[in-house]
Amino acid sequence: MENENNIKLILQPHERPKNYGQWMILSLQHVFAMFGATVLVPMIINQTANEEVINISMVLFCSGIGTLIYIALTSAKVPIYLGSSFAYMSVMGIGYSQWHNSIFIAVFIIGVVYIFMGFLIHWTGIKWIKKTFSPVVIGPIVITIGLSSVKSALQNVGFIWNQESLSQNLYYPQWLAILIGMGTFLIAAIFMLKAKSFLKVIPILAALAFGYFICIILHFSLKAVGYNIMDTSLITDTSSWQWYPSFKAIWNVEPSTIGPAIIAIVPISLVTMTEHLGDHINIGTLTNKDFIKEPGISRTLIADGVAMSFAGLIGGPANATYSENTSVVGITKVASVWVTGLAAIFAIIMSFIAPINQLIVMIPKPVMGGISLMLFGMISSNGIKIMLDNKVDFKNARNIIIVSVVLAVGVGMAITGSDIQIGNSFKITGMFLATMLGILLNLLLPEHNNLGIFQKLKIKKENK
């Protein structure tokens, strides 16, 4: 099925795979694409809080339920998957010792903010959204979304090396990590370029299976020389298994802790709403559809907000649209909402099956690193595609200034791990700062046929 931009999709959003076996495999690929990032969120929250706040089963449960809520409220028109957001995890982990379950009330309020913003856009229209977030702003923002996460992929694949960052049950040299990671990456690339028929649309799953199998062989072969490529205790130590989500009664809190938690956590929603917009423009570019117009960014924000509030009510993490799964759509050309919906159902089922969770958590880091390089690179390259498709003029110095500032601030601060601290808990991230600077420059700098705000004010003054 080919559209006007010559983007050939194997399955459109409304189309369901005819073969049930292929349908399941395509959905599992989405599960594996989101799993590495999703399960990292509770690990970091718990590590920061020095106690278990959220378990892996809970993030899988919230991810699956949240995605189904999103699909239902957007009339199954957008092949987006919701997973746990990275933006909130540090402040949630730090704040848990002070505010306890009030952090989940803050997550609920974030959802309310999304819903309010969705209704505001519904009432005011989308023209100001398209004006504010033009391709010259969204393009570099999407690039930043991809590159801001690439550091973890480079660490896992061995290009940025720190043996001490591995868990106490893991040990292997840098050269071996690079060999496994790049081997996994190349398998995914070969499947994308050379595979035939159905194999061509499962490059991520094929690469993961290949890398996992090779690591099992290497693990037991090299154990004699002291190398541990996988933490097998995750599957052999049944005492660590988690059979059900860590549901919490969030309203049983000290009233005095609710306000500080909301003040510290909720403003971060400005960042994630920007990412939400960028991801929907990104997936629209990959499928040649205008999801900002239909079903409308107002409905997608409301759907994301309802999913977020649900997660907060049961003691789960804040959700976010997952760029990794958007990349899977771009790589496979399978944009079926039926596929993402079944992936969500798989995530819910897995949240109650501990052995499966443990086997997935046991995936070797270099394997996940190789896959992540592919996914994050695809996200960033699509930011470039957004600007090319919309014919952003790079002979215009105005556009070069906007793109340069967004990339320099966003990518630079993300890779160096730099944030602007305000008070004890609130931070301005590089992503948020880059977005605000891009929006301001886009509105203020003059264009050839569209005068900036400063010049318009000057002309009005002279006319008077």
TrEMBL record:
InterPro entries: NCS2, Xan_ur_permease. The keyword Cell division does not apply. Its main location: membrane. It is a multi-pass membrane protein. It is found in: Membrane. It comes from the Bacteria. One of its GO terms (molecular function) is xanthine transmembrane transporter activity. Keywords: Membrane, Transmembrane, Transmembrane helix, Transport. Pfam families: Xan_ur_permease (PF00860). One of its GO terms (cellular component) is plasma membrane. The chain crosses the membrane at residues 20-41, 53-73, 80-97, 103-121, 133-154, 174-193, 205-229, 337-361, 367-388, 400-422, 428-445. PROSITE patterns: XANTH_URACIL_PERMASE. Belongs to the nucleobase:cation symporter-2 (NCS2) (TC 2.A.40) family. This is Uracil permease.
